[in-house]
Write a structure and sequence with these properties.
By secondary structure, the chain is mainly alpha-helical. The protein is built from six helices and no strands. Helix 5 runs antiparallel to helix 6.
Length: 137
C-alpha cells in the first residue's frame, strides 16, 4: 500500500468519524475561523483539533523526515504569494479544499464539487501564469 493511499484512508476515516460522531464537517478553514471568531462552548474542540494537526505533523517530521523534502526551487516570496492566494480563495469560496474537496464531495454537495473544480482550475491557471511570468515556460 503506498503512503498516499494510506494517508487517504486515514483522512477519509477521520472526516467520517468527525461527521458521524460530532455532526461536523472537517474543513480546516472553518475550524480555524471558529477559533478566531469564537462562539461560546464551541472553541475547545477546535483548538484540540488544530493542536492535533500540528502534533501529527511534528511526529511525522521527527520519524519520517523524508516526507518533508522540498522538491521545488521556489523562493520564500513565491510561497508567501501562493499562500495569500490560497487564503483569498478560501474566503471567496467559503471554505478550503479539505472542506469542499474531501468532505463536500463525499456528501455529493454540488456547491463543493463546483468549488473544488474551481480551486483546481484556478490552481492550474495560477501555476501556468506564474511560470509564464517567471519565464519558465
Amino acid at each position: 500500500m503506498t503512503e498516499a493511499l494510506l494517508g487517504g484512508v486515514f483522512i477519509g476515516t477521520a472526516v467520517s468519524i468527525m461527521l458521524i460522531f460530532n455532526g461536523r464537517v472537517t474543513g480546516i478553514s472553518g475550524i480555524i475561523s471558529g477559533v478566531l471568531k469564537p462562539l461560546k462552548g464551541d472553541v475547545s474542540w477546535r483548538i484540540s483539533f488544530i493542536l492535533g494537526l500540528l502534533a501529527g505533523g511534528l511526529v511525522l517530521r521527527i520519524y519520517f523526515p523524508h516526507f518533508f523534502v522540498l522538491k521545488t526551487q521556489a523562493a520564500w516570496f513565491d510561497y508567501l504569494i501562493a499562500g495569500l492566494f490560497v487564503g483569498f480563495g478560501t474566503l471567496l469560496g467559503n471554505g478550503c479544499t479539505s472542506g469542499h474537496g474531501v468532505c463536500g464531495i463525499s456528501r455529493l454537495s454540488i456547491r463543493s464539487i463546483l468549488s473544488t473544480i474551481t480551486f483546481i482550475g484556478f490552481g492550474i491557471l495560477g501555476v501556468l501564469l506564474f511560470k509564464l511570468f517567471r519565464g519558465d515556460l
